[in-house]
From TrEMBL:
It comes from Vespula squamosa (Southern yellow jacket). It comes from the Eukaryota. It is found in: Mitochondrion inner membrane. Residues 153-176 are annotated as: Disordered. Residues 156-176 have a biased composition (Basic and acidic residues). This is ATP synthase subunit d, mitochondrial. Keywords: CF(0), Hydrogen ion transport, Ion transport, Membrane, Mitochondrion, Mitochondrion inner membrane, Transport. Its main location: mitochondrion.
Length: 176
């Protein structure tokens, strides 16, 4: 991570989004990050410049200073390749797509709910309805009528048991 990137972290914005049960983990993570930043800032951004003239005057072994100078200038410490930023960016793009899909789905659900609310507001109040009017508005709640009675809990299993109990003895479901 570069020096400018680690300084640009908006810790307050992140802290607002951290759930209460994870605050301690967040504080520990921020402390480690701050410690890393302090250690990084204690070191210079580039390698120190050496006074080669001083060493040429004071080192008596011929060619040693030039050999060290060549090796020092040829030395490069590669900065680790950034292989995670592209992954994070692609994950962010996918997350934005997912968020947009969820938003559209939620808007459709809100429209459906508002339609249902409008239809409920349009019907007469339940306190003023007869049972027949209620069944007309809500046929899925029809527990039975005078011609088609059923017993509580009005499940298909209970309906089958009720029909079996009403059959005359000796009548089977099989054909002989």
């Amino acid at each position: 991570m570069s020096r400018s990137a680690i300084k640009a972290i908006n810790w307050a914005a992140i802290a607002e989004r951290v759930p209460e049960e994870q605050k301690q983990l967040f504080i520990a993570f921020k402390a480690k990050s701050d410690q890393y930043l302090r250690r990084m800032m204690a070191n210079p951004e580039s390698s120190p410049q050496l006074n080669w003239d001083y060493y040429r005057k004071n080192v008596t072994i011929p060619g040693l200073v030039e050999k060290f100078r060549k090796e020092y200038e040829a030395l490069t410490v590669p900065y680790p390749a950034d292989k995670y930023t592209s992954l994070i960016d692609s994950e962010e793009k996918q997350m934005l797509v997912d968020i947009e899909e969820y938003r559209k789905k939620s808007e459709r659900e809100i429209e459906d709910i508002n339609t249902a609310i409008s239809s409920l507001k349009a019907i007469m109040p339940y306190a003023e309805m007869t049972m027949e009017e209620f069944v007309e508005y809500h046929p899925e709640c029809n527990c039975g009528t005078v011609n088609n009675p059923s017993i509580w809990p009005h499940t298909p299993e209970m309906k089958e048991a009720e029909e079996a109990a009403l059959k005359p003895p000796g009548e089977d479901d099989h054909d002989h």
